[in-house]
Amino acid sequence: MMTTTAGRLSWNLVSPPAAAIVLVFAWGTHPGTLGNIVVGVALVAAVLAAVHHAEVVAHRVGEPFGSLLLAVAVTVIEVGLIVTLMVTGKGDTSALARDTVFAAVMITVNGIAGLAIVVGALRHHLAAFNPEGTGSALATVVTLAGLTLVVPSFTTSADGPVFTGEQLAFAAVASLALYGMFVVTQTVRHRDFFLPVADSSRADGPVDLDQDGHADPPTNREAVLSLALLALALVSVVGLAKVESYAIEDAVASLGLPHAVVGVVIALLVLLPESIAAVRAAVRDRVQTSFNLAYGSAMASIGLTIPAIAVASIWLDGPLALGLDPLQIVLLVLSVIVSVLTVVPGRAKPLAGGVHLVLFAAFLFLAAAP
């Protein structure tokens, strides 16, 4: 909600700089138990503040620009986190980019989308969205995921699930081109396909998009302030997640879990702002906005991360394993099939969201117990 009490507004203003201060003192250290608790509290506060300020900016610029802004902002900083972990992480980090990007895809396509459908459908009988816009977003996500995460497992020019330099360059350019084409489609050519829709078949009538519970749009000054605080909050989220990654790596190792679990946990932390924003949009009967966030984040995670990692690989030592293993490919294929069946009708029942959440749970379980 855009309307807040003075105390809550003050809290949202204070949280990003406070989290940044914690990050400054915690960066480059290995905090103890108390330190990790402080970092965790600051991380949660920064996530909640990021969601608030993203909604302020989104309310000012309108959809789908607001969803695009949050997705791109988080993903750009996520790239920095992946590169940092590949340089400073423990053990073999050759597959860290693949594991993190794949985790981001599964979290967004199944976790965020599924939860949004369940919340929206339970609250409003059916979750309504535009199948044309959502379908084009899903098609772009599937193409990006297949080209950058599946194809490397079947190429023969290099040993292992890796691209040659030429193949990686082609995948990077193709990813940027696809992402650029989608952004133009979403924001210029066919923007109407990505706006929240009304479902006239419902008993309570169509959704009034002008009376959605928001206050009047914020002023330019308020929007600029929120944009700055959003950037600060997102930097703090990713930086604090990096600090917590040491404790996460130690916990994963002590539990005997695969190292890929580290990428999953980091992706979950980084995608918290989109997750909360998507659920809140679904509560307001704006499931299209939830899909914009989910698929937009998946798209940006691949379309921006892979090219950035391709450039960074020039200076990084060791191979860059991008190809998924057979189990991950099966999960991805199942997710694509279910997503297509969900998107085509333009409306979804709680069952559809439940199916996505079961696939998401299977991904989490099999990541820990492959």
Automatic annotation (TrEMBL):
One of its GO terms (cellular component) is plasma membrane. It is found in: Membrane. Residues 33-187, 226-367 form the Sodium/calcium exchanger membrane region domain. It is a multi-pass membrane protein. InterPro entries: Alkaline_pH_Ca-Antiporter, NaCa_Exmemb. The chain crosses the membrane at residues 9-28, 34-53, 65-89, 101-122, 134-155, 167-185, 223-241, 253-272, 293-315, 327-344, 351-369. Keywords: Membrane, Transmembrane, Transmembrane helix. The keyword Transmembrane helix applies. Its main location: membrane. The keyword Metal-binding does not apply. GO terms for molecular function: potassium:proton antiporter activity; sodium:proton antiporter activity. Pfam families: Na_Ca_ex (PF01699). This is Ionic transporter y4hA.
